[in-house]
Amino acid sequence: MMNQAIKYPLEDILKVKKRRVEEAEKQLQLRKQELAKEQEKLLEREKARDKVKAHHEDKLKQLREEFDRGTTSPKIIDMKAYIKLVKESLAVEEKRVLEQKALVKVAEQNVEKAKKELELRQKEVDKVKEHRADWIKGIMRELEVEEAKVQDELGNIIYTLHQRQK
Fold first, then answer.
1. Chain-centroid distance, C-alpha 85
2. Using an 8 Å Cβ cutoff, are 48 and 96 in contact?
3. Which residue, among 100, 101, 61, has the nearest Cα to 83 in the 3D structure?
4. Which residues of 119-135 are buried (b: 16+ CB within 10 A; e: fewer)?
5. Quick one: pLDDT at residue 67?
6. Cβ partners under 8 Å of residue 17, min gap 6
7. Domains along the chain?
8. pLDDT value at position 22?
9. DSSP reduced 3-state for 62
């Protein structure tokens, strides 16, 4: 029996498990990309919110300055109405930021799930590889025993031939 003739019986299973690891790696990369996109959207939403917030603060400052100058009531009423609109816009932007944070959290959870899946698949491959190594050791021991038997038989035959020649 030659080493090349020996085929590991679970080789096909090992190939399938390796393919699953590759698929899990692809999924993990995909989930990481999705997370990066969601985080980028979150940054954009936060910038938009911060811009509206700064505008709101500027308008409040202007209103205070107008109060200090003693401006007419209609102008102050108009400014208050505008500030109210800006405040509503700020609330909308804040809501968008919160919604995006939720999406980022979901994307982070998906990355964690993908990592766990990859880890599980890798463990499966490692188990089969470990089994394969043990199996090869067993086969090698069997081959050594077989070879020792053949050597013993050859030794006996040679000994017998020498005895007959004498």
1. 43
2. yes
3. 61
4. eebbebbeebeeebeee
5. 80
6. 121, 124, 125, 128
7. 10-119 (1.10.287.1700)
8. 97
9. helix
Residue 122 is predicted with a pLDDT of 97
What gap in Å lies between CA 129 and CA 5, rounded to an integer? Answer: 19
Give how far Cα 39 sits from Cα of 57, 103, 139, Å. Answer: 26, 9, 54
Residues in the chain where the model's pLDDT stays below 50: 1-3
Tokens of 2: 């030659």
CA distances from 21 to 110, 115, 116, 120, 129 (A): 17, 11, 11, 9, 13
Residue 89 and residue 84: Cα distance in Å, rounded?
9
Element (H, E) at 42: helix 11-69
Q: How many residues does the chain have?
A: 166
Structure tokens at 4: 């090349």
Q: Global pTM?
A: 0.73
